Amino acid sequence: EPPPLPPAIDRFAQSTFALPGNGSSIVSYQPSESIDRDTLAYLGRLLADWESFHHLYRHNGEWVTQSAGQSAADGEDSLRNKRIAHLIYDASDGLPLLPESIEFRDEFNLCRRQAHDDGSVIEIYLKPEFSCALYTSDHPFRVRYDNGAQLENLLYDIGQDYVDIQLLWSRLPRQTHSISFQFFDASGVKVAGQDYVVSRSPVARHQIDISSLPPGDYSVKIIYYNFETGKSVPGTVNSSGERFERALEFATIRKS
Prior knowledge:
The chain is mainly β. 9% of the residues lie in helices and 45% in strands.
């Protein structure tokens, strides 16, 4: 029987937008409540896919940090090397006054906030190089792959000589996979492509050089494939139910 969790942490564990992965950490704040050893060990297992979990509370006027997860030994890290930070707290205690050693909000953008009737709050922060629209888009580009991987959103921005692409993943298999972005001209001929290994992070950003492409219209497709075998993974577009076996078109761009 698992130990009971503090309400805010329990809500976080069940949340659909609390995405785990490397570079994704959790800060829990309860001013006067510590977590007992058994519960902390359980959280270490429950939240093992996050890079670190830090629970903060005050004792005799001093900050105490309890840590679990892959980076438990880091203790009070500043989160400056993380891409995503989740802050969990009880709103009845007001906005958390975090210790300087673990303060991170001035280096992140608050992208999403979920408040509940019991006072528990979950906030998601992203490093500024990532767009909050990954989480807040009204019509996200969501793809469910047959191996269980789930792409929650894909954003792209076109410059004169580049295409900037941002990805948000909620589930990834343990096996290493890669993605390929491929460009096709108006006649359907592949004219450019770039491949990347998919990391364990929920967010990724890639800037693809298209300076060598002549002016014209191009379709852009994504292929998700097994890194070892090279075999592409089929999937389904969530919004439309469209099935695809290999390449999925996600943009048509014009290079001037």
